[in-house]
Amino acid sequence: MLKICVLVSGGGTNLQALIDAINDKRITNAKIEVVISNNKNAYALERAKNNNIAAECISPKDFENRDIFYEHLKETIDSYKVDLIVLAGYLVAIPGSIVEGYKNKIINIHPSLIPSFCGKGYYGLKVHEGVLARGVKVTGATVHFVDDGTDTGPIILQKPVLVKQDDTPQILQRRVMEEAEWQILPKAVDLIANNKVTVTSDKKVMISE
Ligand code: GRF
Fold first, then answer.
1. Distance CA 131, CA 115 (A)
2. Which terminus has fewer CB within 10 Å in the chain: N or C?
3. What backbone phi and psi angles, to 5 degrees, belong to 205?
4. Phi, psi of 157 (to 5 degrees)
5. Tens digits of residue pLDDT in 118-170
6. 5 has which bridge partners?
7. Sign (positive or negative) of CA dihedral 179, 84, 7, 132
């Protein structure tokens, strides 16, 4: 049984997609052990509690400095003895100490087709604003392993979504979530939980189905 820690900052619709997929058995061999937010008002924490999942808030504001915050975050994650960390809308950068301790065991959902509209500064609505400003006709979402760069780790799954002429960033964000994120994040977790994902020495992901 794959034990998962989900890190969140906001509404938690991707967390909900994971909870629903575990309940529907679209994800097998996996259990969410804990949900941790940096923001005490994140609705994602309510979603965890409503589903009897341990929910913790670890905010950088409550610590003297960033290093102490990260130390505490890592100790808390370690204490749950998890096999996978899922970043589901987590707006805090993951430090090298956690990336090293969980090599190829941290995944992130990003709301664009990497390597477009990703990297520093591309988060939340800014991604979709960038897509509309450039006028691309196709966007989508990507699930990838987390390495020490920003959105640079091995790509596990991607799904395209069409951009429509009268889209606003908000409308496009919603369509990318519905048509891509809520599908490929649970799918990626199921593949990992069932040992179908390997990372090659040249950082490509191989999937056996
Ligand atoms: C999603 O768009 C995700 O791709 C991004 O942050 C957003 C989180 O939304 N990384 P939610 O909290 O899962 O509803």
1. 12
2. C
3. -95, 130
4. -140, 150
5. 999 999 999 999 999 999 999 999 999 999 999 999 999 999 999 999 999 99
6. 34, 85
7. negative
Q: Which residue has the tokens 């002429």?
A: 165
Distance 78 CA to ligand 1 centre (A): 24
Question: Is the Cβ–Cβ distance between 145 and 206 less than 8 Å?
Answer: no
- The vertex-98 CA angle with 2 and 92, nearest 5°, equals 100
Residue nearest to atom 9 of ligand 1 (CA): 89
Q: Which residues are CB-contacts of 209 (< 8 A; sequence separation ≥ 6)?
A: 191, 196
Residue type for 122, please?
Y
Nearest CA owner, ligand 1 atom 1? 89
The pTM for the full model equals 0.96
As a whole number of angstroms, the distance between CA 189 and CA 20 comes to: 13
Residues with CB under 6 A from ligand 1: 8, 10-14, 44, 88-89, 109-111, 177, 181
% of residues, the chain, pLDDT over 70: 100
What's the pLDDT at 209?
Answer: 78
To the query of whether residue 110 is one of the catalytic residues in this protein, the response is: yes
Residue 109 near residue 185 (C-beta atoms within 8 A)? yes
